[in-house]
Amino acid sequence: MNSSSRELTVLQDEVIACRKCPRLVEYIAEIGRVKRRAYRDWKYWAKPVPSFGDPNARVLILGLAPGAHGSNRTGRPFTGDASGTILYRVLYQVGFASQAESTSREDALRLTDIRITSVGRCAPPGNKPTPEELRNCRPFLERELDLLKNLKVVVALGKIAFDGYLSILRDRGVIQSRSAFTFGHGVVHRIAEDTPILLSSYHPSQQNTSTGKLNEKMLLDVFRKAKKLSQVSGSRG
User: Fold this and answer.
1) In Å, how far are 94, 97, 101, 137, 149 from 110, measured between CA atoms?
2) pTM score of the predicted model
């Protein structure tokens, strides 16, 4: 294990142990206690959810936050709810995932050349973290970005993730403002040399897929594009 991989492991442990946001700590614990009837036999994870995937990834998926009865139950990003059903099926088709389904953190699924994280690590009420809660989580994402030495492409799922990543770049002086970058499905943003390409996508939420705003082909096109964009020589660091 190289130093970056070791530091990522330390970071994961810090994420899981985080209790910075009292509202979220209380909420995820209550969800884990009450449960949903369909999952009454589950022992909910009910903690901040760490990232999942390849420490040498060239592509990073950046989501919003865990789902109350999805990741907050299983302990793995996009695992256990409708969002993950379509996402992992697409990742398998593109060759990033070893299987088309993600059911629990103990299953055999492995990711290659891709990693999944989020701007918020705890399930928020109504899927709406507060600005303060996102600020509390941001140092975890910043450290992870620095440790992913081979990173070439960031796929932002949804506007909040998109803005969160751009805010980091703005505050680091890489860009002057977020306003120069428009969110849109499948839009590619080439930002600066030695900075990963930003690829924006609608979030694969049940709301988006059930209304037809996003379908499997649209998401498949995004990740095929991400794979192609990532296949360039060299690395950061």
Assistant:
1) 14, 6, 11, 25, 20
2) 0.95
In the predicted structure, residue 72 carries a pLDDT above the cut 90: yes
Of the candidates 100, 216, 204, the residue with the CA atom closest to the CA atom of residue 161: 204
- Residue ranges per structural domain of the chain: 3-230
Q: Is 39 helix (H, G, I), strand (E, B) or coil?
A: helix
**Digit-coded pLDDT (tens) for 113-147:** 999 999 999 999 999 999 999 999 999 999 999 99
CA dihedral 111, 185, 217, 206 (to 10 degrees): 80
- What single string gives the DSSP state of each residue in 185-228? TT-EE--STTSPEEEEE----HHHHHHTSS-HHHHHHHHHHHHH
Q: Which tens digit of pLDDT belongs to each residue from 168-213?
A: 999 999 999 999 999 999 999 999 888 999 999 999 999 999 999 9
Copy the structure tokens of residue 5: 């991989």
In 3D space, the residue among 104, 191, 108 whose CA is nearest the CA of residue 153 turns out to be 191
State the alpha helices, DSSP H only, in the chain.
3-17, 22-34, 71-74, 82-94, 131-147, 159-171, 206-211, 216-230
Residues in the chain: 237
Please give the CATH number for the structural domain made up of 3-230.
3.40.470.10
Q: Can you say whether the dihedral through the CA atoms of 51, 54, 55, 61 is positive or negative?
A: negative
pLDDT, the chain, mean: 95
Please state, in angstroms and rounded to a whole number, the distance separating the CA atoms of residues 17 and 146.
Answer: 21
Q: Rounded to an integer, what distance in angstroms lies between the CA atom of residue 172 and that of residue 165?
A: 11
d(CA 91, CA 177): 32
